[in-house]
Design a protein that fits this description.
Shape of chain A: globular
Protein name (chains A, B): NAD(P)H dehydrogenase (Quinone)
CATH superfamily of chain A: Flavodoxin domain
GO molecular function (chains A, B): NAD(P)H dehydrogenase (quinone) activity
InterPro entries (chains A, B): Flavodoxin_fold, Flavoprotein-like_sf, NAD(P)H_dehydrogenase_qn
Order of helices and strands of chain A: EHEHHHEHEHEHH
Structural class of chain A: alpha/beta
CATH class of chain A: Alpha Beta
CATH topology of chain A: Rossmann fold
Strand content of chain A: 5-15%
Number of domains of chain A: 1
Keywords (chains A, B): Oxidoreductase
Largest sheet of chain A: 5 strands, parallel
Oligomer: homodimer
Family (chains A, B): Belongs to the NAD(P)H dehydrogenase (quinone) family.
């Protein structure tokens, strides 16, 4: 198995750092291959603009999708973006490792998605999306730390259901580009638990990563389930899909 | 009325640009005051790290919340962050103007939130959140352009309900810090509509911005509605709140 970890935390000694080291060591020891993009360590540029490209389609009006399509047709992506695309094509499984900041990915990781997930058929576009996506056949998983406790992220919790909070990532970024989405691995309040519980979390994370190929996945409708207006044909609904995944599945120590 | 627009689009000639110009001109002509943070034009740093601070609490281990609390107590925020905080305190209403990228705000705007919305009681913390938030009494609104058509963002649409997609922003960023959240103003596929329809959208946007003080808002539960585990006491649910707002409210030309 080839696993690509995109890691987004400014402190190497953080629990996020420990999780990525655990994943890397566990996978390597088991004979798998691992690539890590440590976005903070790389000084990855988070801001999507003309610097994404070595080509220019329209110098007078910057339309990102048009520039992406032109770059896709003319080998015109900047080297930092091309390197990330190459790792995406290389991997069998992608892990997004991040602390949940403001109910989403940190800006440096959002910028990675904004810039690397380019249209024009490179990562999506031309009918290549969701189950017909460029990255179909690969798996992807969010691995995230959250400051609050699980009740706060339950169906009636103050923060809202974690499945709703992660929906734009799991469905909107990962499934959109074709990935089969593995249930997220969530660690609550790693600062506030004991060393033993942290070790237990890491052991479970190692197991999850080693079992990525068979770990439980989130089931979304397929493109064929939608009509020409992109509305579900049957009574099956995306809201039901959300409801199915509104509980926190990660076992707690 | 003092209105603060945080604008996140790389192309000044874009429809997002036209919307912010429309808001600025309309508000100014009506005697209101406007401040605009044009994040791309400012070259705003999107990446949250030690550069957020002039102070250092722990040089060996970077914990963002600890550094924020220390900076809040020692006047230690970097000048770019302090300037944005000052505009937040100054305004009566905040507008986030952005294209929906990957079902969320562009990274440069996520970075603005990651960096400016600091804990330690400055923007939140110490019991100051949601209806007891630092920014309570002020209003905030998302104004966003979306590439796809409304059916795709309806309850059973391919992208998922727009209310679910915007929940982490409306509830998790804006209500979290105390804002009263105004219904979003959404423009679908501005590239694919006629000049007349674009003009109509701009006229309606001008009306919405001029009427910000009385525009319809999203009703969320209050902190007193939650128990000590931050779970709703009554049968009222955040999911119901989501359901209430699962339709696209912005009138279409």
């Amino acid at each position: 198995m080839r696993v690509f970890v995109v890691h987004a935390h400014p402190e190497p000694k953080s629990f996020n750092g420990a999780m990525t080291r655990q994943a890397t060591e566990g996978l390597t020891a088991a004979g798998h291959e691992v690539a890590v993009s440590d976005l903070y360590a790389m000084g990855f540029n988070a801001v999507s603009d003309r610097r994404n490209f070595t080509t220019t389609h329209d110098p007078h009006y910057y339309r990102q999708e048009s520039e992406e399509s032109y770059a896709a047709a003319h080998d015109g992506f900047s080297s930092d973006i091309q390197a990330e695309m190459d790792k995406l094509f290389w991997c069998d499984a992608l892990i997004l490792q991040f602390p949940l900041w403001w109910f989403g990915v940190p800006a440096i990781l959002k910028g990675w998605v904004d810039r690397v997930f380019a249209s024009g058929g490179k990562i999506y576009g031309g009918g290549k999306w969701f189950d017909r996506g460029v990255l179909a056949g690969k798996r992807a998983m969010c691995s995230t730390t959250i400051g609050g406790q699980p009740p706060m992220y339950s169906a009636h919790g103050l923060s809202g259901p974690i499945s709703t909070i992660l929906f734009p990532i799991n469905h909107g970024m990962l499934y959109f580009t074709g990935f089969t989405v593995v249930e997220p691995f969530i660690v609550h309040a790693p600062r506030r638990i004991s060393c033993e519980d942290r070790a237990e979390y890491l052991a479970r994370y190692r197991d999850r990563v080693l079992g990525l190929a068979t770990a439980p996945t989130i089931s979304y409708p397929k493109l064929d389930d939608y009509d020409e207006q992109f509305v579900l044909k049957s009574s099956q609904s995306t809201r039901n899909q959300l409801d199915l995944h509104s509980t926190v599945k990660t076992p707690r120590p």
